[in-house]
């Protein structure tokens, strides 16, 4: 929807409604209708729905919903059955008839007509004319004898199909596959794609002069883990084996040296277990390319010029779970580092970071994800590497809860900056920046108009946005120039803008509390005095000044620690809901909702739990419900940890769980200790000592 592309949905495993749940045809229809309506309501609630141009097409009647069973090798649309009935009715309008096989249309067997008027004795067309034959095929196949008399008669009289007699003696599971593959087949999927999905040649191409434009989506590791092939989608032009191309890395926009000329060694069409080599591939193709992966870390662009570079995808923004690792044998450190580079390339949401203490951190989205990452690190990308793994930890963030004002100057007094720090209390704005709806690369007039009309900013502030941060742009912080021309030399200030932006980026990527990103904080430059001497306004002076100003403003604005929360999606019987509630409550979480799942005795439950408390939650839920409940966890949001991280008076008991009011300080101190950061977070490091003692004497700082 974000790219305004048409979609086709396949509702798989409908055989389970018939064979496992044993629903009657009407209940099966109601279940399928509920799923279709649920999908459509999700689309309507999506943030990109208003600009989506294909919304009117979404319906089984238009062919955008298919019904399938991968187990028994069949897939059908409404038009599939429309075509089957047309074989016995010459004057039947297939398109019109197919549309009436879904929704409030009924079949009158006495008149052999379709009507939209409901009646107690009439069945819906989908139930009678679509599910009816499917149920009969299942029933006849399951109850047929070794001679296959009943199923053979049904196939011949209704479909004009005759199977080999030996197939009726097969196991019933194999017989079902043969019956459905022969009668219904899977051709409707190809028909739906060709009709409902726009041809690649009709999609508007990017504005580029390059004859070739290809998006390198990800890297696929070789079977032996020795190297990688690049999975690419060709947007424009044709790729040929032996062709010389230019590969641009995913951070080429920031680093214009991150590119390399490569020669395509081979082009492969992926086909499941096997890949098929071809000499060339054209527009719209999704292929594997060998020999171009040397500078690619996650994704990239393959072209002949840098007119258009595909933006890097922030796959790791939901990676809020981490472990620290080190080799069991110190001499294996080079082997581990090589394995980590390969793991980072292979897993899109995995990232690796080295702390100042020398600790190697591996980030992922959850327990299972990191378990897969570490398994491949040990056994696939290295030769049985033995590693030590720490207890899992969450990724923290920092924010502020009040407004503060600070003035910071260099030691010489030639440069000074006055900054206001305040919380960003606009979730809609944060989401817009995170999703790329607000981008500093836009025209300033367009950006200003958007901020004024959609987010209520005043005219001055809307034209004064300088920078966003931290790097992952999640719940972002903002830097604004709020200075007035009558009070500030704008020419000198704008000459210092790159250095001030770098200082801001540095500060929000590594906050003062525990070296974690600063989120949801707005920094406004109210006044700035910049030296007229070029040597005095260089990066060596202004970058640390900008960083110190942001830190000081942040620490005087009631800083708070933020922790990530998982949204827990669970499926369980009604009697297990109490177990969910109790286990989440024990872990500082809570249950948000419980909804019955139509056609089953199960409930869908949704809750929230802090990531730091979620370790082992899934296992504990399954143990306490004897396997009747299952759940999965996905990152949801950042929330403030209870307590003040700078309050030295809160109790911190040893060998005991700390009380809620001490959690923030406990997390900060333990995180600093693990990272090798000295002392405690304090304003004293960033302001003049006399000023600090004066503030402390007046009770303005703890």
TrEMBL record:
InterPro entries xrefs: EFG_III/V, EFG_V-like, P-loop_NTPase, Ribosomal_Su5_D2-typ_SF, Ribsml_uS5_D2-typ_fold_subgr, Transl_B-barrel_sf, Transl_elong_EFG/EF2_IV
CDD domains: EF2_II_snRNP (cd04090), EF2_IV_snRNP (cd01683)
Taxon lineage: Eukaryota, Fungi, Dikarya, Ascomycota, Saccharomycotina
Domain Translation elongation factor EFG/EF2: from-to ranges: 437-558
An example Gene Ontology biological process: mRNA splicing, via spliceosome
Record keyword Nucleotide-binding present: yes
Domain Elongation factor EFG positions: 560-649
Protein source organism: Meyerozyma guilliermondii (strain ATCC 6260 / CBS 566 / DSM 6381 / JCM 1539 / NBRC 10279 / NRRL Y-324)
Keywords recorded for this protein, A-Z: GTP-binding, Nucleotide-binding
Name by which UniProt lists this protein: Elongation factor EFG domain-containing protein
GO molecular function, one term: U5 snRNA binding
Cellular component per GO, a single term: U2-type catalytic step 2 spliceosome
């Amino acid at each position: 929807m974000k790219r305004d592309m048409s979609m086709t949905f396949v509702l798989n495993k409908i055989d389970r409604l018939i064979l496992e749940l044993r629903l009657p045809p009407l209940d099966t229809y109601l279940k399928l209708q509920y799923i279709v309506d649920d999908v459509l309501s999700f689309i309507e609630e999506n943030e990109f729905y208003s600009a989506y141009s294909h919304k009117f097409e979404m319906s089984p009647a238009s062919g955008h919903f298919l019904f399938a069973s991968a187990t028994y090798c069949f897939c059908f649309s409404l038009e599939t059955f429309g075509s089957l009935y047309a074989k016995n009715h010459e004057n039947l309008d297939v398109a019109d008839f197919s549309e009436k096989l879904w929704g409030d249309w009924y079949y009158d067997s006495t008149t052999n007509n379709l009507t939209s008027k409901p009646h107690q004795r009439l069945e819906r067309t989908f139930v009678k004319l679509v599910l009816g034959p499917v149920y009969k095929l299942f029933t006849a196949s399951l109850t047929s004898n070794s001679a296959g008399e009943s199923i053979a008669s049904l196939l011949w009289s209704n479909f004009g199909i005759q199977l080999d007699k030996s197939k009726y003696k097969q196991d019933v599971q194999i017989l079902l596959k043969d019956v459905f593959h022969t009668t219904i087949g899977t051709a409707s999927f190809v028909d739906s794609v060709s009709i409902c999905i726009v041809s690649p040649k009709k999609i508007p191409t990017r504005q580029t002069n390059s004859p070739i434009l290809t998006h390198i989506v990800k890297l696929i590791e070789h079977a032996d883990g020795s190297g990688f092939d690049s999975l690419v989608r060709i947007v424009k032009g044709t790729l040929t084996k032996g062709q010389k191309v230019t590969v641009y890395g995913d951070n080429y926009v920031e680093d214009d040296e991150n590119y390399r000329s490569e020669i395509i060694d081979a082009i492969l069409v992926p086909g499941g277990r096997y890949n098929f080599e071809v000499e060339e591939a054209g527009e719209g193709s999704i292929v594997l390319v060998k020999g171009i992966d040397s500078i690619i870390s996650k994704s990239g662009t393959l072209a002949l010029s840098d007119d258009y570079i595909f933006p890097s995808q922030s796959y790791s923004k939901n990676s809020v779970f981490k472990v620290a690792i080190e080799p069991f044998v110190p001499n294996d450190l080079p082997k581990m580092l090589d394995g980590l580079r390969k793991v980072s390339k292979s897993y899109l949401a995995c990232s690796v970071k080295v702390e100042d203490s020398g600790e190697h951190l591996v980030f992922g989205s959850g327990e299972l994800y990191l378990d897969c990452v570490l398994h491949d690190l040990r056994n696939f990308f290295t030769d049985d590497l033995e590693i030590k793994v720490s207890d899992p930890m969450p990724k923290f963030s920092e924010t502020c809860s009040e407004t503060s004002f600070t003035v910071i100057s260099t030691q010489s007094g030639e440069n000074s900056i006055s900054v206001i720090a305040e919380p960003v209390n606009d979730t809609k704005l944060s989401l817009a920046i995170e999703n790329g709806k607000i981008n500093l690369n836009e025209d300033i007039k367009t950006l200003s108009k958007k901020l004024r009309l959609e987010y209520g900013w005043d005219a001055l502030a809307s034209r004064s946005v300088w920078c966003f941060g931290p790097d992952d742009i999640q719940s972002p912080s903002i830097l604004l120039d709020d200075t007035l021309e009558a009070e500030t030399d704008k020419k000198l200030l704008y000459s210092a803008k790159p250095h001030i932006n770098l200082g801001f980026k540095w500060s929000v990527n590594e906050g003062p509390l525990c070296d974690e990103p600063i989120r949801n904080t707005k920094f406004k430059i109210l006044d700035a005095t910049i030296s007229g001497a070029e040597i005095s306004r260089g990066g060596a002076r202004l970058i640390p000044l900008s960083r110190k100003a942001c830190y000081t403003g942040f620490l005087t604005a009631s800083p708070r620690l933020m922790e990530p929360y998982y949204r827990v999606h669970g499926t369980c019987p009604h009697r297990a809901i109490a177990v969910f509630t109790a286990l989440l409550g024990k872990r500082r979480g809570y249950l948000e909702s419980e909804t019955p799942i139509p056609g089953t005795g199960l409930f869908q439950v949704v809750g929230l739990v802090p990531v730091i408390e979620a370790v082992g939650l899934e296992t504990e839920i399954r143990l306490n419900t004897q396997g009747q409940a299952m759940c999965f966890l996905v990152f949801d949001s950042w929330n403030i940890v209870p307590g003040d991280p700078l309050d030295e008076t809160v109790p911190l008991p040893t060998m005991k769980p700390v009380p809620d009011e001490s959690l923030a300080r406990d997390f900060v101190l333990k995180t600093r200790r693990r990272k090798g950061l000295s002392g405690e977070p304090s304003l004293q490091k960033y302001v003049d000592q006399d000023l600090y003692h004066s503030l402390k004497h007046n009770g303005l700082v703890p």
